[in-house]
Amino acid sequence: MSRLRRVALGVCAIVCAAGAGPAAAARYVVAIEQMRFDPPSVTVHAGDSVVWVNKDLVAHTVTAEAKTFDSGSIAPGASWRYVASKRGRHAYSCQFHPVMHGTLIVVPGP
Ligand SMILES: [Cu+2]
Fold first, then answer.
1. Strand locations in the chain, DSSP E?
2. How far is the C-alpha of 46 from the C-alpha of 106, rounded, in Å?
3. How far from chain centre, in Å, is Cα 55?
4. Confidence at residue 8, expressed as pLDDT on a 0 to 100 scale
5. Where are the alpha helices (DSSP H) in the chain?
6. Which CATH class, in words, describes the domain spanning 25-107?
7. CA of 101 to the centre of ligand 1 (A)
8. Quick one: which of 14, 45, 13, 6 has its CA closest to 28?
9. How far is CA 39 from CA 7, 51, 101, in A?
10. How far is the centre of ligand 1, averaged over its atoms, from the C-alpha of 74 (Å)?
11. What pLDDT was estimated at residue 22?
């Protein structure tokens, strides 16, 4: 192994151990605006967090159709954070406005 490669691996070991490496959990934001989830579909790794921000003037919910997660009522201007855990494709909707649909796709962690 070259010296350069050994140094690179050493740096990675330090950075990754500090949680700043590629394994760090990411954070995604979904806006709830004009009766829509934007973006309507997000793909995240298990362990990442997703924050839904209600920018409308009425309350909404983020409720998985399989009840995997449920925000309860999110007031106008408020937000709800969820740490993605269960893998798979989770269709969700707003309990107050069943025409509002979104999808959260959780793939295995990095
Ligand atoms: Cu709604």
1. 27-33, 36-38, 41-45, 49-54, 63-64, 79-83, 88-93, 101-107
2. 6
3. 17
4. 45
5. 3-17
6. mainly beta
7. 9
8. 45
9. 41, 12, 11
10. 9
11. 55
Predicted confidence (pLDDT) per residue in 35-91, tens digit: 999 999 999 999 999 999 999 999 999 999 999 999 999 999 999 999 999 999 999
Among the listed residues 47, 23, 42, 16, the one whose alpha carbon sits nearest the alpha carbon of residue 31: 42
What's the CA dihedral at 39, 44, 48, 49 to 10 degrees?
A: 20
Residue whose pair of structure tokens reads 């691996």 in the numeric block = 9
Question: What are the two backbone dihedrals, phi and then psi, of residue 68, each rounded to the nearest 5 degrees?
Answer: -65, -35
Q: How far is the CA of 94 from the centre of ligand 1 (A)?
A: 5
What is the CA(47)–ligand 1 centre distance, in A? Answer: 26
Quote the tokens at residue 41: 């579909």
Task: Give the start-to-end residue ranges of the domains of the chain.
Answer: 25-107
> Of 92, 12, 81, 70, nearest to 48 (Cα)?
81
